[in-house]
Each structure stands twice: as structure tokens, then as C-alpha cells.
């Protein structure tokens, strides 16, 4: 099947983009954005070059999709059209690490793993899990990825205190700053998180950091099914063990696991691990390790399957897990924060699975969103579900991108 293609660029438009950035080339098959074929790929090396590319695109009415490390371009919906892929992978530096202030400034194209390696030299970390191997800081912001450590550290929304973006018209905007208690400007950063590149292009972000723990242990126990997984995880959440994360892994068939991460000083971790072992004690008994269990900080889906994000209040986790098993979905995620991820491998069951999971999540004050799926599945199901603030979101999109040229159609309501 031939991928849909955008209109060939005119000579003037092509020359304008080429003059704005030193590294511009014709798009290839691997540059397709969820099946949609662009004409050009521009790879700027600075915020200023990003600005120049977007100014050129605006002058010629070109549709632009920002790209980091290409790990999540199939998330959301395919863009309605794309002329230029704006590749920010060359913006890959940790600009500053102010260890004394627990602050780091990093460019959007930097890989999360590289950022963590740089920060670890100073005994610090950005408390964000690399849920997709090789993913970038900008990609994590655009897709709002979060993993086990959201239980104690929060999400990117909580950790990001400053941001630099380039609007669709090429204007550079900054918000926040280098101190945690900062009220300078509008909170643009929170708008960027999860927007899938539809509002502006992120080029730089400022984060507050956490010290690296002296000790880290995982306590993992087998569970028979959803009910036991819910009971044991809630026992840990409501105890005095102070876990850094409480995760469940419940395959559609067979037993699952509850895994608890404990971090801190060695003596304290050892004592709290003993408490957790007692809470999770069962027929087989929990295991303890300094290495993460299989599947930790990863999504349960693989290419070609359908992945969903499920949210609910903590009391509803057991019900959501039970329905997921009934519809044949593998589930992995945070039983401590009510954010779970499900994978449905059978395409014929996706429609029913989405419908039933959405219903049970809504019953428990949450939602079910299709994160990633094959193109034919996205066309056959309601990817986003009900969105009460849709008109407000459209208004925000119009303010930032009135001509709808940034990642058009990728977000909810064809934004």
C-alpha cells in the first residue's frame, strides 16, 4: 500500500527552507510520519535555526511535524499532511548542570539515557523513566510519557520548571526559569506536555533534579490474578514502607507480579524491604533484587499491537485489571498512582476492548486512550474518547497555530 503523500513543494518554498538551515534533504521512506510522506527533512542545530525554518515554512504555508528520535511518531493520529519534518536530534546537549541548585538545562533532542549519564557524574538524576529506549527529552514532553517513578517524583509536568519553544510563525518564546519558585510568564510548559507537537516546537527545557539514591532494591511477588494484585499493591501503598514505585504486571492469561521499588540509604532500604516482603508474603514468597524485574519501566505493547493508557482512582485498579483480563489485554503500570498501560494483540478484539475498558475507567473517574495502534485500527475506533474541554483546546491551538500547520490532525479533535 502506498503511503499518502503531501503536495510537491514549489521551488521557492524548497529554497526558503534550504536557506534557513544548513542540513536539509529530500525525505525518504523512513521519514514518513505514521504513514504520511513529507517532502523535506530539515535538521537545525540551534533554536535560532529552528526559528528560521519555521519562518520559512510560515511564509510558504508549509505543514511541519517536529521529530526527535522517531520513537513515538506513530502515537496519536497520523497528521493530515506534512511538508517538512523538523528533526531536532542535533539539539542534543545538556546545556548546564547546576548541581548545587539541583537544576539541569537540556536541549530537546538529547536522549534521556545520555542526560541521565551526564547527571549521574554529579550524583543526580532526572526522575523520569526512559519508557521507550532511545527516546529524547522533547519526545517525552510531547508524548507525556511517564513510568514507575511518577509514584513518588511526579511526572514531567511536575519536574519541568522552564521551557524554550518556537511558535509556528518562528517567534521564540520562553517561560519559567532556573528556580523552582518562579512565576515569570505564562505556564507554557504545561501546555506543551502531551501536545504531540501541535502547539510549538520545544527546543530546550529546565528541570529540577533529585539525588541518586545510595541504595536501590526491588521486591517482587507473584500474584494469581487481578484481585490479588490489587490487594497486595494497596497494602504496600497504605503501609509505612515509603516505596519509590509500586507496579503491577498482569498478562491476559496466567499469573502476574507486583513489584515494589525502594530507594534511599542502605540501612533504611534494607529495613523497608523487609517490611514489604512481609506485606507481599505468599505461597511462593517475594523475591528481592538490586536489578529491576523483567518489563520494568516499559510499555506492554510491541509494534503492530494496540497500546492504551488507562487511568482510574486507586480503588478502581482491581476492577480495571479484571476487565482487561476479560478482553484479552496485557496490563503493566503503576498501581500506586492509578496509571496503567494495556496491550491488545488481537486486532479483532480492539473495538470491544476499548469500549469496555473506557467504560470501567470512566466508572472509576478515569479514561482510556489509544496511544499507539496500526493505521486500520485507528480508523476503526475512537482513539481519544470523550474530551470535555475540547473547545478550549481548539481555542488554545488557534492561539498558538492559527493556520494549523504544526502536526495538523495528530491530536484530539483533529487538532
Summarize this structure briefly.
The protein is of the alpha+beta class and 415 residues long. Helix content is 29%, strand content 24%.
List the helices and strands and how they pair.
Blueprint: H1 11-20, E1 24-26, E2 40-42, H2 47-59, E3 64-67, E4 84-87, E5 94-98, E6 103-107, H3 112-120, E7 124-125, H4 137-143, H5 150-153, H6 156-159, E8 160-166, E9 172-176, H7 188-192, E10 201-208, E11 210-211, E12 215-223, H8 226-237, E13 245-250, E14 256-264, H9 266-280, E15 287-289, E16 306-311, H10 317-326, E17 330-334, E18 339-344, H11 350-363, E19 367-372, H12 375-380, H13 390-400
Parallel strand pairs: 2-4, 3-4
Antiparallel strand pairs: 1-2, 5-6, 6-10, 7-11, 8-9, 8-10, 12-14, 12-15, 13-14, 13-17, 16-18, 16-19, 17-18
